[in-house]
Amino acid sequence: MRLHAEVFDEAGEEEEVAVMASAALSPPLNGAAVAAPKLVVGYALTKKKVKSFLQPKLLLLARKNGISFVPISESLPLSEQGPFDIILHKSTSKEWQQVLEDYHEEHPEVTVLDPPNAIRHLNNRQSMLEEVADLNLSNFYGEVCTPRQLVIMKDPSTIPTAIAMAGLTLPLVAKPLVVDGTSKAHELYLAYDEASLSMLDPPLVLQEFINHGGILFKVYIIGESIQVVRRFSLPDVNTYELLTTLGFIDCQEFHVLLLVPMMRTLTLLLQVRPFLYMLELPPRPLLEKLGRELRGRLGLRLFNIDMIRELGTKDRYYIIDINYFPGYGKMPGYEHMFTDFLLSLAQSKYKRYLSGT
């Protein structure tokens, strides 16, 4: 497994991009010399995803390597489109997933990234971390854990009693239970007191907050390649803040919903910025082992892991989220990694064709 480690700051805004689709390329004739793979990649992505992922650099590099990206219309029968070598998609609708499964049964030679039944595992924040909880990586340069969490399906007034019975303590991170591709699915709150918990909207997951130095490791996985990116996260919470802070923070926008000392929060973020580039990354052997294990257990090849290191420890890590087909466009050098990945799929397919398997 190849590992890349880079530092990236998300402060910059995404550029406007124009999406180009080149014509499908024909496979080599029988008896012709072995050439670079010719690959037609159909994609069924939202406009937002197309804009962030299919950037000009990726399209140009792919075209130079004989790869063409062709849009798929969900309003037309999939069997009437193509032919495709690979289908890229990120749609959570049950109708589309059924269409894709039926298509793959008729066309098993087409590589679907990734299988809908595997993606479903990540559509629920309770089930997505179950595979991690079963891992035993203690002998691989670190311990990988999952935070304790509690699922609330309805009636937020029962939350204080439920967290007491579960042995959880404040503050707690609140996330929607279902990951359905909408903006609501990415809402994230840090609750400081019990009263604020009753203002949240179930179904949701309450996850224990672990101090981690305000730094998050985003581990991007593309096939067998891994790239690690440092990102800013929520600052640590101390005893004084727990005693004096009310309400909760909208973690996505840092929006003040109730009385929260946000000036102190922002000051801490500015103070920690110079140290972001000095922070030690998780050990390479640990990430390689983790990537292999999760890729096999989840049955996915395009995903990322949100990982934190517990404050005061050197090798205790927590996985707090897993995302399918994440924002690769924000990752430095993603064009080369993704193009290499597609070419590796083409090479494997072509070798099987030559061997008759």
- C-alpha geometry: globular
Q: State the total count of DSSP E strands.
A: 16
Overall number of domains: 2
Radius of gyration: 22 Å
Distance between the termini: 25 Å
Q: Number of helix segments?
A: 11
Q: What are the segments in which pLDDT stays under 50 over at least 5 consecutive residues?
A: 5-37, 252-267
CATH superfamily of the largest domain: ATP-grasp fold, B domain
Reported CATH architecture of the largest domain: 2-Layer Sandwich
How much helix, percentage-wise, in residues? 25-40%
Mean pLDDT: 80
Please identify the top-level CATH class of the largest domain: Alpha Beta
**Beta strand %:** 15-25%
Topology-level CATH name of the largest domain: D-amino Acid Aminotransferase, Chain A, domain 1
Subunit structure: Monomer.
Function: Kinase that can phosphorylate various inositol polyphosphate such as Ins(3,4,5,6)P4 or Ins(1,3,4)P3.
Domain Inositol 1,3,4-trisphosphate 5/6-kinase ATP-grasp: 141-343
Family: Belongs to the ITPK1 family.
Name some characteristics of this structure.
357 residues; alpha/beta; Rossmann fold; D-amino Acid Aminotransferase, Chain A, domain 1; 2 domains; 6-stranded mixed beta sheet; 6-stranded antiparallel beta sheet; 16 strands; 30% helix; 23% strand; globular
Topology:
Blueprint: E1 2-7, E2 39-44, H1 47-53, H2 56-64, E3 67-71, E4 86-89, H3 94-106, E5 111-113, H4 116-119, H5 130-133, E6 143-145, E7 149-152, H6 159-166, E8 172-176, E9 189-191, H7 194-197, E10 204-208, E11 215-222, E12 225-232, H8 239-244, E13 248-250, E14 255-256, H9 262-276, H10 284-298, E15 302-309, E16 316-324, H11 334-355
Parallel strand pairs: 1-12, 2-3, 2-4, 4-5, 6-16
Antiparallel strand pairs: 7-10, 8-9, 8-10, 9-13, 11-12, 11-15, 13-14, 15-16
Helix pairs in contact: 2-11
Binding site for Mg(2+) 2: 321, 323
Protein name: Inositol-tetrakisphosphate 1-kinase
Binding site for ATP: 125, 175, 207-218, 233
